[in-house]
Amino acid sequence: MANRRNEQMGLAPRFPENHAAWLERCHAAGQQRPTPLLLRYGAGDYNCLHQDVYGELVFPLQVAFLLSRPGEDFTGGEFVLTEQRPRMQSRAEVVPLSQGEGVIFPVHHRPVQGTRGIYRVNMRHGVSRLRAGGRHTLGIIFHDGK
Fold first, then answer.
1. Which residues are CB-neighbours of 142 under 8 A, at least 6 positions away?
2. What is the model's pTM?
3. CB 90, CB 123: distance < 8 Å
4. Contact predicate 90/83, CB 8 Å
5. Residue 71 CB contacts under 8 Å (≥ 6 apart), including other chains
6. What pLDDT, in 10s, does the model give residues 37-83?
């Protein structure tokens, strides 16, 4: 999937068939810090819109799993994605998740079909402000960082 996406957007990096080989590339480039995250949010906490780019080598997809129960363990704290579209307003999308569900999303950009072919849009993700309770999330980023 990652190779197909990069090909569609005219990006050169290609990825090996397995994760261990990809991590070997990261380590050879000096990116040796593991990047999976266990995130904890309390009332009033949030995560600003950002991209998880931790070095020169970046795997284009990542995943986040919601470990808490919305409406029971916490309120607010929605997972948010934004598209920064060329010559247009940015567009936000809230991804509703239940406990145990995950979302696969772009680290940096994604391909979009336009009238003249495929182009790329920049993506950012974050978490809206928690109004009450506590929220836990597991984030898996498939490239190691510096």
1. 19, 22, 59, 61, 62
2. 0.91
3. no
4. yes
5. none
6. 999 999 999 999 999 999 999 999 999 999 999 999 999 999 999 99
